[in-house]
Amino acid sequence: MHLRLERVKDRIAHHKLDALLVSSIVNVRYLFGFTGSNAMTLITPDTSFFITDRRYTQQSRQQVQNAEIIIAQKNLIAELKKIREIHAGVKLGFESMHLKVKDFMQLKKTLPQAKLIGSERIVEKIASVKDAEEVENVKKAGAICGKVLEAVIPLLKPGVSELDISAELSYRAKKHGSETDPFEPIVASGKRSALPHGISSAKKLEHGDLVIIDFGAVVGGYAADITRTVVLGEYSAKQKEIADVVLKALEISESAAKPGLTGKQLDQVARDYIKEQGFGDFFQHSLGHGLGLDVHELPRIGEQSKDPIETGNVITLEPGIYNPEIGGVRIEDDFVITRDGFENLTPFPREVVIV
């Protein structure tokens, strides 16, 4: 944690700030290992202040190091005026992607002497490069996902509802050691599988349905995110065609993944192939995203992304084709970018399974 703080301090100096207010609870956890739900931290080149409420008095003392702990009597932002490092004219960076408008207004009122400077993604850029322990946590979460799929795929039968399967995914992930769901599991069947990010419903599975299963697991706070597609009983020629294209798109994009590309360039590899096969209009989202303490992190892997792909990034690749007349297929795996390419962190078989 100390090294992470030092890297943030280096970025504070790089941006010519006197201090940075970190309000994202995910970023607070990254910097201090704090697992509570309400905290922020003020970081200066010389010191750090950790602010939380009275519920977390003991927890913060147990988890937080390398910071002066302040227990707020009213609200967190009000405590900032007591910190002597915030003097007249101080250049105070704040997380403009995370701070709520009402909190920003209170910040202005609390610190009228400070020059507030919106600072985007300072912590996120540091957090996007994982160390060995972080990668291992994602890998363990990925292994849990594989065990869950082994148990749940045989349960997919006509008459079982999407919500039934969603509940099984959550339950079995926790039974195998997942701390929580990183997001609500998605089970979408039949024509509903053509909804790229639909939610599980009371719809019952039917013979011939394509079924998209998108879920995850969490170990040490770090998420794995995996998607597989299953077909019930009968695999039509059109369903197989789109499944083969999606599988190939994943294979060629993972082979292309390496340091030095941008998110846009990696996205283009899969997107161009899907277009060449005649399904370009049916690939309706980005190829992937970074993964870690948050299920969507840097680097972004999409058509507009200039984010660099770097050694140590943990990313998802999740090409999909969604045809309202046929249904949808998405296949997603998680990878760590290495010096020479990648390692798959979710190595459960990818092929569309017929049950």
Structure commentary:
The chain has 355 residues and is an alpha+beta fold. It has two domains: 2-127, Creatine Amidinohydrolase, Chain A, domain 1 (3-Layer(aba) Sandwich), CATH 3.40.350; 132-354, Creatine Amidinohydrolase, CATH 3.90.230.10. It contains nine helices and 17 strands. Helix 6 crosses helix 7 (162-175) and helix 8 (237-256) packs antiparallel against helix 9 (263-276). The longest helix is centred in the middle third of the chain and has 21 residues, at 132-152. The chain is elongated, with a radius of gyration of 23 Å. The chain starts with a helix and ends with a strand.
Which terms summarize this structure?
single chain; 355 residues; alpha+beta; Creatine Amidinohydrolase, Chain A, domain 1; Creatine Amidinohydrolase; 2 domains; 6-stranded mixed sheet; 5-stranded antiparallel sheet; 17 strands; elongated
Q: What name is given to the CATH topology of the largest domain?
A: Creatine Amidinohydrolase
The percentage helix is 25-40%
* Main structural class: alpha+beta
Written as H for each helix and E for each strand, in order along the chain, the element string is HEHEEHEEHEHHHEEEHHEEEEEEEE
Strand content: 15-25%
The CATH superfamily of the largest domain appears as: Creatinase/methionine aminopeptidase superfamily
Across the major sheet, the strand order is 4-3-2-1-5-6
Radius of gyration: 23 Å
- Main sheet summary: 6 strands, mixed
CATH architecture tag of the largest domain: Alpha-Beta Complex
Q: What number of structural domains do the residues give?
A: 2
Q: Given the structure, what is the number of helices?
A: 9
Mean pLDDT: 97
